[in-house]
Specification:
With about 190 residues, the protein is of the alpha+beta class. Helix content is about 15%, strand content about 25%. Strands 7, 8, 9, 10 and 13 form a five-stranded mixed β-sheet that branches. A three-stranded mixed β-sheet has the order 1-2-6, with no helix packed on it. The protein contains three helices and 13 strands, in the order βαββαββββββαββββ. About 30% of the residues are buried. The protein is globular and about 35 Å long. It has two domains: about 1-80, no CATH class; about 95-185, no CATH class. The two termini are about 25 Å apart. The longest helix is centred in the N-terminal third of the chain and has 14 residues, at about 10-25. InterPro entries: LRR_dom_sf.
């Protein structure tokens, strides 16, 4: 959450926020409160315009509400901006992408590709309560796009049902590529 309740952000700051909303794909809660900004800054934020006048994809946001302020500029009220991908129930949404685990032996479904250990580091715990996409694995080390497998699913691995926890760092420089190897995919 970015809290700007009493901070003057300036024209450049408003542009950076607009650019960030356009390009940043993480979950954001932006609170600006009664922060006075000028007309140009208000245009950057409420219309999603930047210095290059590239509009934001308005379907991805709940927009900022603006009121005229005493200073002739605008004051913004609390706004929540959420950038999350629409994912299946077995997937984790992160950074505007969807990720899943499956016993697919290194193969990902059409439109998806193997994801990295770095991404898995950020979202591993979010797999608690998720299930395999379609195929139960026959090996618990997670095959990613990286050379080595570093993560292992230790809960409900190689069995049906929801995972009670996500993968943990447990495989050391493994390179196991079984026919139903647990695979980490994303789009």
């Amino acid at each position: 959450m970015l809290n700007l309740m009493s901070t003057k952000i300036g024209c450049q700051g408003a542009q950076y926020l607009a650019d960030g909303l356009k390009n940043n794909t993480t979950l954001i809660k932006l609170e600006i409160g009664q922060n006075p900004i000028e007309v140009q800054q208000q245009r950057y934020l409420t219309k999603g315009e930047t210095a290059e006048s590239s509009p934001l994809d308005s379907s991805r946001f709940r927009w900022i509400q603006a009121d005229s302020g005493d200073s002739g500029g605008f004051s913004l009220r609390t706004t929540t901006t959420t950038l999350v991908a629409s994912c299946h129930s077995y997937e984790v949404s992160w950074n505007n992408h969807c990720y899943y685990l499956d016993g697919s032996g290194g193969n990902c479904t059409s439109g998806y590709s193997q994801a990295t250990n770095a991404v898995l580091t950020c979202i591993a715990t979010q797999f608690a309560g998720k299930t395999y996409r379609s195929t139960i694995s026959n090996n618990c080390c997670v095959w990613t796009t990286d050379t080595y497998e570093c993560y292992q699913l230790t809960s409900n691995c190689n069995s049906a049902g929801p995972f009670t926890s996500g993968p943990v760092l447990a495989c050391t420089n493994a390179q196991q590529h079984y026919s139903q190897q647990l695979t980490f995919c994303g789009r």
